[in-house]
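Morning - iron/sulfur cluster inputs below, output right after.
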Amino acid sequence: MTTETASEIRSSGIQLQPDIPICQQDLPLDWYQEEFKPYAEEYLALPDRRPETVLPWMDEYIHPALDHFGPSLMLLAHYYMGGEIVKLVERYGGSVADSYGLALQAARHPEAKVIVESAVHFMAESIAVLAAPDQHVWITNPKAGCTMEMMAKADMVEPVFEDLHERYGDDLMVIAYMNTSGRLKAMAGATGGAVCTSSNARKVVGWAREQGRKVFFVPDRHLGEVVAGWVGIPPDAIFSWGGGYDGAQQSIAALSDADRDRLDRATMVLWGSYCGVHTVFQPEHVRHWQAEGYRVLVHPECPKVVVDVADGAGSTSYLWNEVMKAPAGSRLAIATEGHFVNNARTQGALHGVEVVNVADVPDPKGRSFGCGCATMSRNDPPHLVAMIDLLRKDAPPDLNRVLAGDIVDEATARRERLSAEQRARIAADARRALDRMIELTEN
Ligand code: SF4
């Protein structure tokens, strides 16, 4: 079993292929905010989605902005972006990375003053938390949320934390997975805890364990179980709390005496939200591909029973690098987000590596169980073009600006923004938790 930490952004190596449609699926016009609709109308009127058609349209808007901003403009995307948008971002000089790599970019590039992110909101907010005051972070679609994070909103988790804190006091430390809002990262920072990502969770949770304190791991339920196993926390020392509104409604007082006793003895309390994209995988899928001669690599947001039987587990960067450095003739089966696997399949084929999706096991009905991250794919070429062009015109919608502590409703885009004073407090505590993670990861 191998894991990898990725802090530097290298080129993904992804190449645009002629005749492959640029975007996986068009969004309906009414999914775009008012300011973006004129761009979406132009895009939707294009005759097809081939690079030969879409790129000239994008170039017309993006090249003037690149000339206007120069190195002060930084474009970022996550590997899970649907269709070919990751390739577009790199084509315009931007970078593609996993959530850890993205979070570091503002601090690593002080020359970047305008940072435009095509991914989900918590990723943009993490960049904003670590940004300097003169660096502004923008998200191409503020409605791009993460379902795991949606089941761990601050108003769900905070009452539970208060309940636990009242019972365990300063013995309690919060480890917040990167897939959380800044407010939960701040909760981790305030308890002397840390943030972790799938690339460094083993180090961070191992460090937390050495502190001898009870860990409240928020979320992911599966990653928490996997990492607990990696650092030697036995299953009977884990207390599984609910996730989403179920978790919010639980309380220590309502537990049975036996459960309260288990909670008292637990080394780790796990908030129960999870990623639907990563929980479709099953051990039988892994064994199928192993029997066919494939090396099976999985993301640790998959259930622990899947990780336990795989040949390797690690972050998005780890999985990508394994594909890119595999020698010709290799056969890899990957269990993670569907757009990522599609891109890995295309790029692997260019150097003789066969990549399959672990969920694509033979099915009498011809189904594939794998899926893409639909919420992240709410960013598409018109969102990118509109954001960049409106920034150049000095007319960016404030809704797309990302500040620490912002909460955005993924259905309506309604935003709750803290006062400057509250924001400063959240940013300071969240930065403390992120800095702890960086220190543990880089040293
Ligand atoms: S793939 Fe899952 S965990 Fe990752 S951003 Fe999408 S919903 Fe969240």
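Note: The domain at 149-270 is CATH 3.40.50.10800 (Rossmann fold).

O.
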